[in-house]
Task: structure prediction
Amino acid sequence: MSAPVLEFAAVSAGYGAMTVLDEVTLALGADEVLAVLGANGSGKSTVLKTAMGLTQLVDGEIRFAGEAVTALPAHRRAAMGMGYVPQTRNVFEALTVAENLRMGGYLHGGGARADLDSVFDLFPRLKERRRAQAGALSGGERRMLSIGLTLLMRPRLLLLDEPSSDLAPAMVGQVFEAIARIRRELGIPVLLVEQNVRMAMTLAERVCVMVRGRPALDVAAAALDLGHLSALFVDGGVRASG
Result:
């Protein structure tokens, strides 16, 4: 693994009085995709929200690109280059596809034509639908738009929460191919939370398996024993909403 772009050091965090993550230590290299897997309620989505500053931190330290961000609010982390794509489709439904993408560029002070073209190259379907209102898009199209909007903010790290959720099989393949290109061609490291284990394994160099708020396994994807993985999912339990 190269120098870490994101580090958790004994991080405990949650929501209100509920602690979900329990002394989580992990690191994402600047040259990799790390897939965070686990049963429902294992805390995997809370890892992303905590990285972004959207949970209540109880203890530990978070570093991004070598800098401590533990005390920084979400908007400051975003300005530093954290790009978060939540499971919900965070798009402007009343705007067209093209207007949504320009909004992402404006938020970063950009919005150049070349940037829009790069998103359309990743997601040809968005180019076809560029004049359509975002509220009229299918679930897969909205997911593509959400990722594209985030890319136009020029992130140094992409946090993706279950990109395959509720998508038709054909759309899942298109979205994951785009994620592979984002890592390969744009050089953006990815922290991926995903329920579709097979698809996650096509992308990830490393896998972290969460069980009851803690990493139970952190290994190279090529070394992952699927039987062991299944046992961890069964043991995952439900502690809080993932």
